[in-house]
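hey so u asked for the seq, here:
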Amino acid sequence: MSRRAWSAGLCVVVLLLAACRHEAPSALGTLEFDRIALPAPAAERIVGIAVREGERVEAGDRILSLEQARGDAQLAAAEAEAARQRQLLEELRNGARREDIDQLRANLAAAQAQARDARAYLARLQPLGSQQLVAAAEVDRARAAAGTADAQVAAARAALAEAQGGVRPEQIAQAEAALAAAEAQLRAQSVTTGKLDVVAPRAGRVDSLPYRLGDEPAPGAPLAVMLVGEAPYARVYVPEPLRVGVRVGDAATVHVGADGGRSYPGRVRMVRSEPTFTPYYALTGKDAARLSYLAEVQLEGQGVAELPAGLPLRVEFAQ
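ran it, structure tokens below
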């Protein structure tokens, strides 16, 4: 065989081998950590920032502090209201004092004396009225005064009986409910005031501090964004032709970086069932291949926890 013929045969073999080799299915994306936002509990001014962006913190470490003057005042008001409701309930449970009972007895005695006087006056006027020695209107006024005095006696006697009988159970129940509401409001205000010192709920890295010293964020605005988790994950977009072969739990290889020079083993932890991009035209035939599905691949191995978020990557799924 000539040298030219041998070279031609070698090229054919190389081309055949290249045609037989298939690349593993892959998807592109970025390296991510789980993100948590720390919202502002109230519209208060930022008076202290204890960390820098990119700094690693442990659970319970202070991130920043908000002004507490208003929160302390609201907490004191809630404590005072709870104390007032507590004393009102105690007053109802103890019932009327002995001095109050004595005062009601004295009121009853005074009403009885006035009633006796009114009846005696009426008894003196009635004979005179029958003899027409006094006007009939005077007799009627005396009779009305006697009736009023008797009514006052009945009212004083009922007030004394009510005090001696004690407080109704329904009043005790209402006071207990009012106290429970005041104590619940106190607990809620205590939690809100405690959140004015913003601390890290988990160990992680401070990714962003949107506000600066002296700012007054609105309630619910993110004061800090943290990256948490023991290891990052790859967020990739799986093309429709590969979706049928990607399942949760499948092994994968993650090539990190634009050149893909660093590779780490991984495992699929999530695949969305709905596409992230839906074209306006029919999802059939060739058009369906334009769909992509969001997936997450958890990285494994040594050193993955130190990788920075946002790096581009490529994920190869096991065939």
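The chain is about 45% helix and 25% strand. Residues 98-130 form the longest helix (33 residues).
lmk if thats what u needed
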